Amino acid sequence: MADDINNPDSGNTGKKNEEDMSTSSLAAVAAGRQSHAPATQALGVGLEARGVHAWFGDKHVLNNISLDFWPGTVTALIGPSGCGKSTFIRTLNRMHEFIPTAALAGEVLLNGEDVYAAGVDVTKIRLKVGMVFQKPNPFPSMTIAENVLAGLKLAQLKVENKDDLLEECLERAGLWKEVKDRLGTYGGSLSGGQQQRLCIARSLAVRPQVLLMDEPCSALDPGSTLKIEETIQHLSSSVTVIIVTHNMQQAARVSDYTAFFLSDGGPGEMVEVGPTSEIFSRPKDKRTENYVTGRFG
Amino acid sequence: MSETRVIPAKRELTTKPRLSDKVFRGVVTSGGLSSLVILGLIFVFLLSEGFQTIKSQGLYFLTGSQWNAVVTDAGTIDTKQSHFGIAAMLVGTLICASIAVIIGVPISVLSAIFLTFYAPASIKKLMITIIDLMAAFPSILFGLWGFFVLGPSAEYWAKLIHKYLGFIPIFQMPADFYTRSPFVAGIVLAIMIIPIVTSISREIFSQTPLDRIQAAYALGATRWAMLKTVAFPYARGGIVGGTMLGLGRAMGETVAVYTVLNIVYQINWHVLLGAGGNVASLILLKFGEAGPAEVKALMAAGLALFILTLIVNSAADAIVNRTSKGGR
Amino acid sequence: MSTTTVKPQKPWVASPKDRVESVLVFIVAIAISAVTVAVTPMKGKLAYVALFFISYLVLDYFFNRIKRGKAAGIDSVFRAIVGMAIAIAITPIVSILAAVWQRGHKGLHLSLFTTDMHSAAPSDPIINGGLLHAIIGTGLLVAFALVISVPLGILTALYLTEIRGRFTRPIKFLVQAMSGIPSIVAGLFILAAIVYPFTKAYNGIVGSLALSILMIPTVARTSEEVLRLIPSELREAGVALGGTQWRTVAMVVVPAARSGLVTAMILGIARIAGETAPILLLTGGGDSVNTNMFHGSMGSLPFYIFSGLTTGTDESITRAWAGILVLLVFVIVLFVLARFLGNRKVGK
Question: Nearest Cβ partner of A104 from B1, B6, B10?
Fold first, then answer.
């Protein structure tokens, strides 16, 4: 399948890259964690990006990204603005194609199956790979409870006990205590941070395997940010979390793995990926070091 | 690794929509095409009904100023002796609409400037509401008001204009008859287009980039100087577009003109003289007494009016769009 | 150390002295125009207004020029001109409202809403007859037009905002072009397309069809504006939760725009309620109540007003003004309702 899409040359370069990276992530084993090195073969579990390129019109914005996300981990994507982080995570649940001029190459494998394969039901993909957006966006015409359960209605899923699910999702998003007495009020009446946790609860209600978070705290104050970070840590045991952030402290606090993206004016590339502690203490690439030490970006 | 940047071919994104989405998109698209279908049908039906007249009259249809239907004994129309020329009414349409634009547009643009740059917030909202309300007034109301209330006053103004500006050809009077003139109809149409031209101009003025306005003030400009150097150049195109839109409205108006104007079938350039008409009011006037054959001629006149307003509206639309997108 | 209390000040606001001065300029201008009208042969409202405006312009110019310089003088002239323009723009509305009330209320009576005109002659006293048939007729015409044009209008808007296909630009253009169709042309079209080939008679439904043509663009454009205000994040959120486009639009986008879509409908009704030209061509009028849209001529408020005007007796003209009063009240109520709904926040 991969050979159909990538020409042999790019396949080779991709392989070389990945071997480089696997040495880097061996350090993770040393750190006492399971190795999650990007593999060349489909592993059959988790979410894997294979040589992903992306375009908007003729503009090549993302170059050859291969990255694996293992169940039960939090991966942070860091890098300066415009390096393609957000574009990359939007390719993972096919939100990328929402932009009319968008194009793509490479594969995204979810549990070993290409999400872009012909005949795949895109709504099923998005059910398994949920998303939380930069700005909190609760549905204005729905109450808090309706918002949380909106995904069930949208995707026409049946659930035995809606009340239990409602409580569970709000509990996991760390919002239950604050809203349990006003589930019937409109979502717009909550504060920004609460709205964002409501959006997280909404994503959880359809039981996604992976949760993409596109700078979820950039519109929030520090206090709310802290709450969201706590929520992310609770979630990571059951959901694979991929978070785009501008805030390096945040990446260091919440993530197990960190990938550094950079654009030299051309398409964005992944410079380095590894366990978060490594990226922040002993980065391999000079550019990563410059970025994490605040010398640019 | 960046030296060996090999870019693979773009993948074809196959978003295979579900059946429900296919149905949804199909229904919405066919609903969205309704405007195309309706406009197309209007053109086709008016043309098929009016074609005979246009063919038999030839160029006279556009240049002639006589309208009389001669019916043969067999009940069909005598194409040799009947004359259907809409020139008089086209001229009347243009005269009334031009008066409307000449009077209405300056008032509207200046009002829009007042509302955007001068009015205190409290008055602003009220005035915008009142002017928008006027856009919802039915045209027969303007006709009634124009006939009973404005008419007598406007007649007096017309006499003053003739007295002091009578040396200008269009203000001359071949007969002493000021009632129900194109001048009065033009004023009524001017009032009718004020809301739409004001709201378009207001929208354009309110989009004037704030940084440019502040830059002008920071250079010590008075409000007038700021308007002259920043707001007018920015809004010029939009105002032209709004004017065209107002012109289109004024040309197509039927009932208000029919009520206010003394419909006489002749080319009349004397705007103060109580005689004139426009294509729309002609159709309404002749329709009541028209036999089947003459109705076909009226359909042809309707087609001419349809095409005329379509052209003016398209031009207006193009100008407004170019201006609001250009963001000069 | 003494504590000084700092009071908030607005030094840029006009001081009382400035205000008194500008009011004085205003009063002096009125006085000048009053004196001129009294002394010279120039008479009448027009002379009064024109003289006031000219004298105010001149006085204000010199006052500001002496006080703050030449640039300020010119600035004040332009301010006076735009103020005059808005006064001219507002005057006809006030005059129209006053005229409608003044002339229309004489025609109001209790049985106006309970009787029709079938047994009343044009020159009968006002108390005879009413406009029940016209109100019922207008109600039916508008209702049927609503049924046709609201779905088409909203679908058009959804195409422009949700599908955004190949035809987006042409359709936007065509909707704009359609909103400029003269109402008489809509009437002629229905005559040519439906009345002559098929029904061969006047009835209500053909009137509704013509009104729909005029209503669709209003509904489509207002709905499009409203749907465009719904942030695209909501659509993305709906789809990211696994909703199909159809379910996202039906459950998220349209509910969020609900009050705006109602506003679009109301504005559409206001647009056609008083539309006269196609009604005159198609519905045949009629003096008695007719509730069958498919058979027989159908009365309506605009027809009632128009025929009252063309009949030309004092009574019939008073009836026409009473009719326009009723119609205007209806339109204003719709307008206020639309404003009220439009001002509410999205989603409530």
Answer: B10
C residues 178-217 lying closer than 8 A (beta carbon) to B: 178-186, 188-189, 191-193, 196, 213, 216-217
Q: Which of B247, B238, B206, B232 is nearest to B320 (CA)?
A: B238
Phi/psi of residue B11, each to 5°?
-80, 145
Please state, in angstroms and rounded to a whole number, the distance separating the CA atoms of residues A148 and A139. 10
Whether residue C85 is found in the same domain as residue C225: no
| B251 at interface of C, judged by CB pairs closer than 8 A | yes
Q: ∠ at Cα B188 (B183, B194), nearest 5°?
A: 120
Query: Which residues of chain A lie closer than 8 angstroms to B8, CB-CB?
Result: 5-7, 10, 51, 53, 105-106
Half-sphere exposure of B9 (CA within 13 A, CB side): 10
- Residues B281-324: tens digit of each pLDDT: 888 888 877 777 788 888 999 999 999 999 998 888 888 777 66
**CB-based contact C160:C224 (threshold 8 Å):** yes
User: pTM of this prediction?
Assistant: 0.82
Query: CATH for A2-292, among 3.40.190.10, 3.30.70.100, 3.40.50.410, 3.40.50.300?
Result: 3.40.50.300
pLDDT per residue as tens digits for the range C21-45? 888 888 888 888 888 888 877 777 7
Contacts of C174 in chain B (CB under 8 A): 35-36, 39
Average pLDDT over residues A32-52: 61
Q: Which of C231, C248, C347 sits opposite A141 (nearest CB)?
A: C347
* Residue C113 is assigned to a structural domain of this protein: no
Residue C316 and residue C182 share a domain:
yes
Confidence of residue A141 (pLDDT cuts 50, 70, 90): confident
> Is the CB of B203 inside 8 Å of chain C's CB atoms?
no
Nearest residue to A155 (alpha-carbon basis) of B222, C248, B179: C248
On whether residue B70 sits in a domain, the answer given is no
C81 and C184 housed in the same domain: no
Q: Tokens in use for C308? A: 């009252």
Residue count of chain B: 328
Count CB atoms within 10 A of the CB of residue B131.
23
Distance from CA of A129 to the nearest CA of B (A): 17
Over 60: is that where the pLDDT of B236 sits? yes
List the domain range (segments joined by +) for residue C278. 132-343
Average pLDDT over residues C163-179: 88
pLDDT in the model for residue C346: 46
Domain locations along chain A: 2-292
CATH number, domain containing residue B225: 1.10.3720.10
Instruction: From chain B, pick out residues whose CB is under 8 angstroms from the CB of C85.
Output: 106-107, 109-111, 113-114
Averaged pLDDT, A270-291: 90
- C117 within a domain of the structure (yes/no): no
ipTM: 0.87
DSSP A7: -
User: Residue C141 is part of a domain; what is its CATH number?
Assistant: 1.10.3720.10
Could you report the per-residue pLDDT of C59-115, keeping only the tens digit for each? 888 888 888 788 888 888 898 899 999 999 999 999 999 999 999 888 888 888 888
Interface test with C, best of B41, B141, B142, B191 (most C CBs within 10 A): B141
